[in-house]
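idk why but the lab printer keeps eating my pages so im just putting this in chat instead. protein + zinc ion:
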Amino acid sequence: MINETRNFKLWDFEEKKAIEVSFKKAGDHRWKALCCFHTEKHASLYYYDSNESYYCFGCGRHGISYEKYLRYIEALKPFNLVESLGEPVASYAYRDEEGKLLYQKYRFEKRNDKGELVKTYRIWRPDSKGGIIRNIQGVRRVIYNLNKINDSGDKVIFLLEGEKDCDNLMTRFEGVLATTSDIGAGRGFKKWRPEYYDFFQDRSIIIIPDNDKLSRIFYRDIGNNLAGIAKSAKWLILPGLKEHGDITDWLIQGGTLKELFKLIEKAPEFPLPIPLEDRTEVNLEEILGSNLPPEEMIIGDGIMGTKNYSLIVSRHKKGKTLFSLNLALNLISKTSFCETYPVKKNCKVLYIFSESNIFNLNEVISRQIEGLKELGIIIPKDCLKNFLSYNTRKELLTISLTPSDDLSRLQKCLDTFEPDVIIVDPISRIATFNMNKAENITFFSNLMIRMRDCLWVIVHHTRKEESKPRQKNPPPIDEEALFDSIRGSSAWCNNADTIICLTQSGADLPPNYLKVFFESKRGFEPMPLEVKWDTKTLNYELIDITDLHKKVKITYSDMMEYITKNFPGKKVKNKDLINTIGQKFRVTPMRVCQLLGEAKENGDLIKESGKFGKWYISEQGILF
Ligand SMILES: [Zn+2]
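predcted complex ->
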């Protein structure tokens, strides 16, 4: 009936209320109205009655009918999910050729503490009593709208990333047919199933990827595989989309059906060549004949590059985390790494932190920033937001970067923050499977490569000294033995582009004097650096130890002269005094304690009792 109107109650997820809107019929299963969420002159709010969902192509507000919402809440009640996942805002039915419901993909949304929208998806199947079984074990997996595709003769099929886009395209343009798979662009850990290709046999397909590299790689692959199966398969890149934008954004920007078909006319047909940088197989002729830019470096001329993966390793308790935090500060502020190797651009750093909690991070980072200031290295305030701590200790002791929700949560974080560098500290807390097995390493590094084009820095510890009693300050080992010990410790190093290894500098030096070794796959051999881990500022300072290894003797009078000069009339904490003198004279804390004991016995120094005993010079000592 022309000019038919009907009222639908829409559930407003943001305001938590139902809004009744009068819609005009706009075609088969679709209705149109002036938007109730924004002011407009031309109707852009659509209601799609076969899915009981609405979408506004003016402001992007979307949701489901109030009735559907109530049904959801009822069905989901036994599982108590609203608290953890948020409210159900959409569901997408996956049906077989005959239209029988196989399973549903549910979309939940909730606002987190910061007010950001968090989306979660679940795929569940119906039981026979109108309820839900929360898994899809043994259920046949199909593509979206399969029954409609089956009934559509030889109509063109749009293959898109995501059900929302399919619904929106089909709502906006009557008679258009769109499909997707229930896995999106299958970011690294999920797969497009080979049997899906059969659904496209002898059909005409238009593939429209989202505007990001992963989506393009994923759907270009599918397109090339469809080339021999489909009647025709075309590749359409929509113009004017922002990064990660999709066809819904294009529709909101005012894209019309006429424009869409104009674009399709010019769209290239599969099979299409894959750009060199996206390929796994490239022959030498192609490499040499191309204008590939040189590898882009982030640190130095060969220490860490974009799209690399590096390893920071040491034995336990050598300050890997402090070193890595220092590195992160250098990366966000473009200040030199270890005061030596230039950082080439201001980076965004995602720090996957499972070693400690944010309270501890606050303490450590503020001390490091203050300490760096003393060294003349300024970390500007406005770059602090480029350091994102992804704290895995908030809810769980460990997260598992295996195919799970944790991974999709991390993926979401990567999509919104878009880091240049990801630091994983430490890998042992994050991977629940045996990380020393080469196949697990390969799996994980592939995952890293697929998840994003960025530099990954993995923090890892070397093998513990076996069967030897644990020494407080194990003797340093030479460089070769050190890298050998990492190899024995983990297959991680076999895949790393660069390994940075921290080890104690020398048996004659205090334990906070460390040596930093580099091993690079690029034939670039950076000189080892000598650094001192400042116990007060928690920074690594570059030091010159040319004459540090010579054992320096300290006499009783050296010490007393130093104390008299530097702390006249002051009370100094035991710990501070030992550290200061130890560092000044490069002797062990033990030797300082011994001399302090002597001074106490002699009556030159007095030690105040109490928990943090303080030293001061006695009257007799002043005369010294
Ligand atoms: Zn609107």
